Amino acid sequence: MNFRPALIGALALATLVTAHAATTTRPQADAFAKKVAIINQHAEAGAKSPRRTTVTESEVNSWFEFRAQPLLPAGVTSPKVTAIGNGKLLATAVVDLEAVGKKRGTGGTLDIWSWLGGRVPLSVTGILHTKSGQGRFELQTADISGVPIPKTLLQELVSYYTRTTDHPQGVKLDDPFELPAQIKQIEVGQAQAVVVQ
């Protein structure tokens, strides 16, 4: 049996993972924060001229790593986004299912929340559709620790972690949403996105 192709594949994968990890830096987090400030200033000034701002996957993930923690809901850590292209995104995070289970579970043996617990990796893929200042996320797959989960379970998690006093039910996955800062659309490409105002 020839192990060389498997070894080469494993080394290539390790190199990609290491390269990705190395791309998150404080300067890139600062660059993303500055771009967000410019986007907001453009909107606040009521500028009529169109503006296109490119943000990279590395900038967004650097911001998540170095600046986002105070803004994340309790129980959500290590968020990362991969811009695949043609609007498709892969988002991952570690979520704490204990808190959700205590709130949502009935305690019965057939209740799925009775079986779930602890801090686990959550992955979601889907396509971001944006046009004329409106957005919608089309869910394609979701899994916890590599095990596919139904949309209803993902909705429970999203609702729990996005609820506020103004929106006690949290965000609904299928609901369209208004883009902030007079953004007309977001063009998701490979490893980057262009914000169009």
What does it look like?
- The chain has one domain.
- The protein has 197 residues and is an alpha+beta fold.
- The chain is built from 6 helices and 9 strands, in the order ααβαββααβββαβββ.
- It has helices spanning 4-22, 26-44, 57-66, 97-104, 112-115, 151-162, and strands at 52-56, 76-85, 88-96, 119-131, 134-144, 147-148, 177-178, 185-189, 192-196.
- The protein is globular and about 50 Å long.
**DSSP summary, beta strand count:** 9
Characterize the largest beta sheet: strand count, sense, and whether it forms a barrel.
6 strands, antiparallel
Shape type:
globular
Distance between the amino and carboxyl termini: 56 Å
Beta-strand level of the residues, as a percent range?
25-35%
- Summarize the amount of helix as a percent range: 25-40%
N-to-C SSE series?
HHEHEEHHEEEHEEE
Mean pLDDT across every amino acid position: 85
- Structure annotation, total helices: 6
Radius of gyration: 19 Å
Counting helices, strands and paired strands, the structural category is alpha+beta
Number of structural domains: 1
Poorly predicted parts: 1-21
